[in-house]
């Protein structure tokens, strides 16, 4: 485990943590001392879902995430929830706080991505995309804020996306082919919601920030959307950046839209492995990142 233990005594909830980015974030917060409530639909067996019009089952369970965290000496609690079910979504925060004894950190990571061009996208896909990336973070934040006010501090981190930036001109072949416009629009809205919430909550010592991948992270859920030869990044950089958003007073670090390779590079902090025991090479700016990407999140 990380010897610094920046999050010792803190309680975190990470959505979508049965696999991929959510699992990586949960592992890193736990290795920094937090008790992490991990949540997703898949408690002890992989969950199915529809993508591209077909039923798919994606690997990963909460039980596996908990086992990884505990094997590394951390603490984790599994709490299954389907965020598309309004009752489960709206009761999740209170249930997590009751199980763990409070709530200090909320990481909104869970998502749904089913790419299609705008002229070909079904309305239910549009609705599900905005539900996952805007309505769910909004509702979970609303429920979390009272717990954070009671504790006197809090940290909310929304997982963003570099696709929120406009397509580069002249348009690349990828942009011309299309498919991610609605996903990107939902992430752009999430970025702006985050910045507005940061202003509203800074006087209550609740920090609200965005962290997104600088390029792409190959996960079980995203693999089908990423070309086989695309240069992806290690999720440890993103997980470390999330951690750095979860311990300073809000007055010192809030309202940022930070990216996983750019922010460590600009701020000069070390990036540790997910179990906290090792250190990765210093972050280098990917040459293929969007040219508008902020270095420091401002």
Automatic annotation (TrEMBL):
Entry-linked InterPro entries: NAD(P)-bd_dom_sf (IPR036291), Sc_DH/Rdtase_CS (IPR020904), SDR_fam (IPR002347)
PROSITE patterns: ADH_SHORT (PS00061)
Gene3D superfamilies (alphabetical): NAD(P)-binding Rossmann-like Domain
Protein name: Oxidoreductase
Family in the record: Belongs to the short-chain dehydrogenases/reductases (SDR) family.
Keywords for this protein: Oxidoreductase
GO molecular function, one term: oxidoreductase activity, acting on the CH-OH group of donors, NAD or NADP as acceptor
